[in-house]
Write a structure and sequence with these properties.
Shape: rod-shaped
Number of domains: 4
Distance between the termini: 176 Å
Largest sheet: 9 strands, mixed
């Protein structure tokens, strides 16, 4: 049986090769037929991406079935010895069932007549040497598949070449690329997807390539069922560029542009409200020197002390991409920071120039706020302190070289007095000198002070006839925009001899006495008048 088995094995492998080659042709023809059919259907119906995906999956399943039936199955389930023996007896009638009998009886372990079976096998072996076992191979499926594949591939290939570049685009669409269906007119939409504010207008623009029609159609779809078709016309500048303006957009819609036989992809216009603020919290931070700390302020009542800081905490109605503080009067902008919950910023209140602020907003879709509210800001200056000299009352005082002059004054400030000092200068050198008064570490809002100014302490030592000009200066605690400084009028001191001083004191005493006499006379006359009135009644 060695010769028979060897011959049958050669026939089997030959049949397997023929079947696999036929399967290759069948698969090749199926690919051309199915993909070509999908391309033709797509050109006819302009399939959506989802529909093309379904078609591609169906094509892949069909090709998988063909590959299993025509490629894998011939390898996994090749023809056995019995089948090949029967095929050989069909083409070689002289065997008269010898070959199939020899193959089947040789597998049996027990036979009725072993000698007879052995003689049958030996005779069949001798005949098998000269028999053409290649005739047991079926070649006609290969020829049939080759012819069908050649016909299909030739037709599809010729159509593909003739229809280029349209066929290339259809093939790319079949492979799920985002390519438009090739037409006489291809449509390129310029505006594509957009986000617009509700109530705004939007311009749809497209460009025609290839054959340029006189007009086109804009197909607008709202929701699922509502659809509207509008006419789109070319621009005056470029006949291939088409535009259509849609006024007062209130809801989201999708659209396509059709020019001649070309239809664009579907794009979407999203209508969203503009960004705005749900709340705005304003906190005024007073300068440290005022001791006032922080105070909540209403956005409509922003009267702020110069040098303060205004903290803003804004909560928008929708997520934002950015928020900016635009300072009116200063023409500057300050970006706000997002802390995860709200947008914050701090404004330094200048001495002047700032008249208000607005808060432009931009949401994540790129929409900007419109007609932003301008919050008015009134800047209140920090008033300087007030000071008045209470003593001496005369514009000029006389003192001796070793005398003392009492200087009294009253001062006040809204937030606190920082320093108080006496300025003076001698007529001889004209150099201004300062005596700073001890505030004892306090910064009162009001103060009354008397200073004992001893003339011997003045350097250089005073001489008779020297004239001294002096005044009081008071400064507040404003270390941000100040300090505020106020000075009294200038007063004069003249250094005289003791005799001149005594004479001056006597003159003043005489004046006081004369004033007292005048007051007494006036009082007496008043009493007399009052008595006359009482008696008259």
């Amino acid at each position: 049986m060695e010769t028979i088995h060897r011959k049958l094995s050669i026939a089997r492998h030959t049949q397997m090769f023929v079947d696999v080659l036929a399967g290759v042709f069948a698969l090749t023809g199926s690919v051309a037929l199915l993909v070509g059919g999908e391309m033709a259907m797509d050109w006819w119906l302009d399939l959506t991406w989802d529909a093309r995906l379904v078609a591609l999956l169906a094509t892949a399943n069909a090709l998988g079935f063909v590959a299993y039936q025509r490629l894998l199955k011939p390898i996994l389930v090749p023809p056995d010895d019995d089948e090949l023996a029967l095929r050989m007896e069909h083409v070689a009638p002289q065997l008269r069932s010898r070959l199939i009998a020899a193959v089947q009886l040789a597998r049996e372990e027990r036979v009725p007549s072993p000698s007879l079976v052995g003689q049958l096998v030996a005779e069949t072996e001798q005949m098998a040497v000269t028999l053409p076992f290649r005739k047991a191979v079926r070649w006609w499926p290969l020829l049939r598949m080759f012819g069908a594949a050649a016909l299909v591939c030739g037709f599809v290939g010729l159509a593909f070449v003739k229809l280029r570049p349209a066929s290339v685009d259809l093939l790319r669409r079949a492979l799920l690329f985002h390519v438009l269906v090739p037409r006489k007119t291809s449509v390129e939409v310029v505006t594509k997807d957009q986000v617009v504010a509700k109530g705004d207008s939007v311009v749809i623009e497209a460009v025609a390539k290839g054959f340029v029609p006189a007009d086109g159609q804009l197909m607008v779809r709202y929701g699922v069922a509502q659809q509207q078709t509008l006419t789109v016309l070319p621009t005056r500048e470029d006949k291939a560029r088409f535009r259509r303006k849609i006024e007062n957009v209130q809801e989201t819609f999708s659209y396509k542009v059709k020019l001649n036989d070309g239809v664009s992809e579907s794009y979407k216009i999203k209508a969203q409200p503009r960004p705005s603020l749900a709340s705005l919290r304003c906190v005024q931070v007073y300068p440290v020197y005022t001791g006032l700390g922080q105070q909540r302020r209403a956005p409509g009542d922003l009267t702020l002390l110069e040098g303060s800081k205004l903290q803003l905490q804004a909560v928008p109605v929708k997520p934002l991409k950015s928020a900016t503080i635009r300072l009116a009067g200063l023409n500057t902008e300050t970006p706000m920071q997002f802390n995860g919950k709200e947008w914050t910023a701090t404004i330094d209140v200048p001495v002047k120039g700032l008249s208000g602020f607005s808060i432009p907003l931009v949401d994540n879709a790129g929409l900007a706020s419109k007609d932003d509210t301008v919050y008015r800001v009134d800047i209140v200056p920090d008033k300087p302190p007030t000071v008045s000299l209470t003593y001496p009352t005369r514009r000029e005082e006389l003192v001796t070289v070793y005398g003392t002059l009492w200087v009294g004054f009253e001062a006040a400030d809204e937030f606190g007095i920082g320093t108080a000092m006496i300025h003076y200068k001698l007529d001889k050198d004209g150099v201004e000198k300062v005596i700073e008064l001890d505030m004892e570490g306090q910064h009162p809002k009001t103060m009354r002070r008397r200073y004992e100014w001893k003339m011997p302490a003045v350097s250089p030592l005073l001489a008779e006839g020297t004239a001294i000009e002096f005044w009081i200066e008071v400064r507040d605690t404003n270390n941000v925009t100040g300090p505020g400084v106020t000075m009294t009028d200038h007063y004069a001191i003249k250094v005289v001899s003791e005799a001149e001083k005594r004479a001056e004191l006597m003159r003043r005493l005489d004046e006081y006495l004369s004033q007292l006499g005048s007051v007494a006379d006036s009082q007496l006359k008043l009493n007399q008048t009052l008595g006359d009135l009482i008696r008259a009644k």
